[in-house]
Amino acid sequence: KQAEKAVHQKKGQSKTKCRKARRRHINLVAEFNRRQRKNIWLETHIWHAKRFHMIKKWGYCLGDSPTEKSYRACYRAMTKHCLLQDLSYYCCLELTGKENELLKQLARICSTDTGLTFEEACCLSGRFEGSLNLYRADRYPQDMLGPVTFIWKPKDGAENRQLWIWMHPALKQDILTELKAIFQCSEPEEICIPEPVTTSVQEEKQMDVVLSLGKKRKKNDKQGEEAVPVKKIIGDGTRDPLQSYSWVSQITGTVISDRAMEILRYRLIGPLSHSVLTETLKAASLQTV
């Protein structure tokens, strides 16, 4: 009887996949998607995870401190070379509407007493990025929301303008609520419905089908491309994936869109920052139709 029990237990136990199977692309991507359901990963997460102690804050998984003694190297890069920081966890809100209407309502949440505002000429043209402190509507100098940075899209002759406001994820919900209130944006324009992530059972079935056919999956194989799960960023650390991410005002026509985790943001520090950008970015040739 004990021997029969042992046989039945062995059949019920799932076999642990070997390292070669775990390191396959289809299994790696599925595992990464499963691990970042609660805390969103940045695009540079794997690079940081190998070199930093990771912490979970504001709905993201971020690198906190390096595992090696690299403080001197970072200081040397900031003072003599170039240091790159990934700030993609910062949230971006996009405002689209008529310029006069945008400036009229945004003037209620900032003040000229603290410095420049959204109406600054150098920033309004789109050439420079500005920074200021936001307050609740008509409540200055009380009820401060927090510091933000902003940049206008350069004028292209269209009637509507675009404004991007960057803020820390801890301030996003308060600032978003205040912007929707002053622009009277109540109706959601779009709702984000995420696609289901491929489960491990489906992956095993796909692998069994491939092995039964006796063919290796190739990159140019259509069936293989459909079988391999794609990395999905479902929502972001500050928004539930089933919540709307764009709101429109029927009165002013202003549209507020949540662009968190859609636009990557990096910070370059050091005297050679411009040289690095010059060598990295190449100007595109203009083609007129």
Question: Can you put this structure into words, describing what you see?
Answer:
With 289 residues, the protein is α+β, with helices and mostly antiparallel strands. Among the domains are: 28-68, no CATH class; 91-187 and 245-260. It has helices spanning 2-12, 19-22, 25-35, 45-49, 71-80, 99-106, 121-124, 172-182, 200-213, 222-227, 273-280; strands at residues 40-41, 52-57, 60-66, 83-86, 91-98, 130-135, 144-152, 160-167, 187-191, 244-248, 255-258, 266-269. The longest helix is centred in the last third of the chain and has 14 residues, at 200-213. Residues 193-201, 206-229 and 231-235 have low confidence and may be disordered.
Strand content: 15-25%
Spatial shape: globular
Helix/strand class: alpha+beta
Question: What is the N-to-C order of secondary-structure elements (H for helix, E for strand)?
Answer: HHHEHEEHEEHHEEEHEHHEEEH
Strand order of the largest sheet: 6-7-8-5-11-10-9
Count of extended strands = 12
Distance between the termini: 83 Å
Q: Describe the largest sheet.
A: 7 strands, antiparallel
The oligomerization state is single chain
Mean pLDDT: 78
Q: In terms of per-residue confidence, which ranges show pLDDT below 50 for 5 or more consecutive residues? A: 193-201, 206-229, 231-235
Number of helices: 11
